[in-house]
Known about the structure:
Structural class: alpha/beta
CATH topology of the largest domain: Quinone Oxidoreductase, Chain A, domain 1
Number of helices: 10
Number of strands: 17
Strand content: 15-25%
Bound molecules: zinc ion
Distance between the termini: 12 Å
Amino acid sequence: MKAAVFSKPGIENVRVQEYPEPEIGDHDVLIKVKMAGVNPIDYFTVSGMRGLKGHALPIKVEPLPHIPGSELSGTVDRFGKHVERFTKGDRVIAYNRLFDGTCDMCLKSYEMLCRSKVGDGLIGVNTNGGFAEYVSVPEKNLFIVPNNLEWDIAASIPITALTPFHALKEASLRANESLLVFGASGNTGMLAIQLGKKIGSYVVAISSKTWLKDFGADYIITDPEKILDEMDKITQGNLSDVVLNAMGNDMWEKSFKVLGRNGRLITFGVLAGNEVKLDIHSLYSKHIRIIGCTGGSRSELHELIGFSKELKIKVWKKFKLEEAKEALQGLFAQQREGRILLEIG
Ligand SMILES: [Zn+2]
């Protein structure tokens, strides 16, 4: 089969070449990949470092030579003899966390925190991923999507939509609360806006992009220097109930100051620095909660598929498998607006 492969770290080392078709175990399913999402995790997998310069940590990638691709969708091609839930041609997406299903975290629906050795991994990082014609995935990681669901959306559910969905659940966002989204025009940002609206909250986006109105944003703050003033006005002084900031220390102070009483600040990523200062007085006197989270659970993915047809995504560019390197390079391009997808099947 054809696959995007690298043998040593570095985007420049990605080649599209012939690679042996994956073998499937008794509990595995062979997926014919249709569309793969391109995410920072794929970039970090190939570059060998998780995070951007200044705060990057080495990332363990296996096997080598390696096929990246942590967010994938496609159709069932073949399956092992103990697989009962799927038939050939089923349209599926893959939950990308590896997990054992038996530890206390898995039993509490926190498979992304699985304590087992295997649970420390991701499809596409610690197994070969979806930047290939075929990928083998354990049956327990697979979910069927609705028949008429666009592949662009299917390939955006396992990471791009699940991450903010889980974050908003962890933050206990409720109807009639205000949600402030930093990095709102980013992949997870545009989904956070839509999910916040579905919950019934008042969603404020921080972005220079007015197209976010089409994604449901009730109000857009274009000048980061005016966040506090504008939120103060919009909420009649109450400020934000929930703030979503996956930007890192760049925006930390602004995102903390704009929290109102019983406010929740939630983060699942860092683009600009790991360390921040914390005003403990505000933290306790306003009953503020700071919540970290990563990914989401299988149960949340299952729930999310239920309204996946109502979600939309802005696509910047679709690349062919042969252009996997260009797709990865585009991820941090200044002019990027919307997601990057790899169209394979
Ligand atoms: Zn587990």
